[in-house]
Design brief:
Blueprint: H1 3-24, H2 27-30, E1 33-37, E2 43-45, H3 46-59, E3 65-70, E4 77-78, E5 85-93, E6 105-112, E7 124-132, E8 136-142, E9 145-152, E10 157-162, E11 173-175, H4 186-197, E12 201-202, H5 208-218, E13 221-224, E14 235-236, H6 237-249, E15 253-256, E16 275-276, E17 278-282, H7 283-290
Parallel strand pairs: 3-5, 11-12, 11-13
Antiparallel strand pairs: 1-2, 3-4, 5-6, 6-7, 7-8, 8-9, 9-10, 13-17, 14-16, 15-17
Length: 296
């Protein structure tokens, strides 16, 4: 078994364990805060810590892991100097929705060091995310092939839903937080208005994994731009934006920070929690946006 396969097995086992916890215990209790903030200035929930500790514990046992980056940790965690992978993760994306029983998930990304350094998204060799919703699902892009799995709760095994998934070119769905419209750049608002004029429908959960998964399945575009209060956006590059960009680029879609391909953004060695605006969509939707054809 390759090191990458071992990593995949470890991460998928963690997803299964997290899924069992979510389905077994009181979501109101799991969604309670522990009285502290994480590196991103967000209130830490009880389940955030449980997921974070589980992932760190399991990944720390693998000799192939050089470092770990987590939303819940201030700095990189050094594991094995001779390891060849950095594993980054958001242990529980959308955790503010836990107590409401709205879909949350885990996002992860595996980077392979080249000449003992990380350049950008070209270092990614695997990424994925889970969804803890009506069923537990796992989407993984490995060897540039995207596969989706559904968890069988009776025996904790993964059933393949689709292999080598490719998103369709077009749909009339857009996703963004329109309550921020008053602080968006004028061009973003013009773009939103153009979508509405063309009969597009808004869909917004507020959990990144849920909104991304819907966009991947149904096509359209997902936007979380910068605004007047947060010029750099709110999504973290290393453990949220990069891994989802890797998936969509290998699934007949595109990504951008509004100016360049997400995967070409230099790895932020000096700030592992660097934020970025995000634009994810089908080739058609992203080309329309990038070419500014919405002005017409």
């Amino acid at each position: 078994m390759s090191d990458l396969d071992t990593l995949y097995n470890t991460l998928s086992d963690c997803v299964i364990e997290i899924s069992h916890v979510i389905r077994k215990f009181n979501p109101i209790s799991l969604g309670s805060t522990v009285g502290s903030e994480n590196s991103s200035g967000e209130q830490v929930k009880k389940l955030d810590l449980l997921c974070n500790n589980l992932l760190i514990e399991k990944l720390s046992q693998l000799s192939c892991v050089k470092c770990i980056a987590s939303e819940e940790e201030e700095e990189l965690i050094k594991i094995n100097e001779n390891g060849k992978y950095l594993v980054s993760f958001d242990p529980l994306d959308g955790s503010s929705n836990i107590d409401c029983n709205i879909t949350v998930g885990t996002i992860f990304c595996v980077f392979e060091y080249k000449n003992n350094t990380l350049i950008n998204g070209s270092n990614i060799v695997m990424s994925g995310y889970s969804l803890y919703g009506g069923s537990t699902q796992l989407t993984v892009c490995k060897d540039k092939v995207t596969t989706m799995y559904n968890l069988n709760p009776e025996n904790s095994t993964w059933n393949t839903m689709c292999d080598n998934y490719q998103m369709k070119e077009y749909s009339n769905i857009y996703a963004l937080n329109e309550s921020n419209k008053y602080i968006y750049d004028d061009n973003i608002n013009k773009y939103i208005d153009s979508l509405i004029d063309k009969g597009y429908t808004a869909r917004w959960v507020g959990s990144l994994v849920a909104d991304f998964h819907r966009t991947l399945l149904k096509s359209g575009i997902l936007i979380y731009p910068g605004n007047k209060n947060n010029k750099e956006g709110k999504i973290r590059l290393v453990y949220e934006a990069y891994p989802l960009a890797y998936i969509i680029h290998n699934s007949n879609g595109m990504s951008s920070n509004g100016e360049q391909n997400m995967l070409s953004i230099p790895f932020p060695h000096d700030n592992i929690h660097k934020r970025t605006p995000i634009f994810y969509g089908s080739n058609f939707e992203m080309n329309v946006y990038n070419n500014k054809r919405w002005y017409q």
